[in-house]
Amino acid sequence: MTSSPTPGLTRFNALGDSAATAELHEVCASSAWGSKLLAQRPFTTADALFSANESAMAELTAEDLAEAMGGHAPIGRPKPGDPTSAREQRGMAGASEDLKNELLELNLAYQEKFGHVFLICATGATGEFMRDAVRIRIDNSPEAEREIARGELVKINRIRLTRLAEGE
Predict the structure, then answer these.
(1) How many Cα atoms within 13 Å fall on the side-chain side of residue 144?
(2) pLDDT at 2
(3) Angle at which helices 142-166 and 17-27 pack, to 10 degrees?
(4) Which partner from 30, 31, 39, 89 sits 20 to 30 angstroms from 57, CA to CA?
(5) How far apart, in whole angstroms, are the C-alpha atoms of residue 38 and residue 22?
(6) Confidence (pTM)
């Protein structure tokens, strides 16, 4: 059984390289990741796109991961005017000021230790869940935390790629 690309994938596959690169950059700020996905076009299914995401993420160097993480706003402070950032961090919308302040302090401590934002797939997560995750993960080694962040990026990218494939 063969399946055909979704309308969003058909549109994405038809884009010129610079336009496709720009769309991929909206999914993930790593230029190496974007180049790896661009080289695999055309994608026949969303699953093929997701598989390419996982393979590309697995191959990223520490520097590539830092570039990818640099494209993400801190939890509790979505990028102004960025609907993707706001949608993904919706779980913080109803958080109390105390929780927001606590998360800000934890984010700053995390950034101080690791040199990058705390990265978690925030879609569907509550403020309390994210706070608890920072509390646990701040005790990790930089190497362990980099691999956890890599896994979180895979999840975030998959959500964003789903929207791309569906044509949203």
Answers:
(1) 7
(2) 43
(3) 130
(4) 89
(5) 11
(6) 0.89
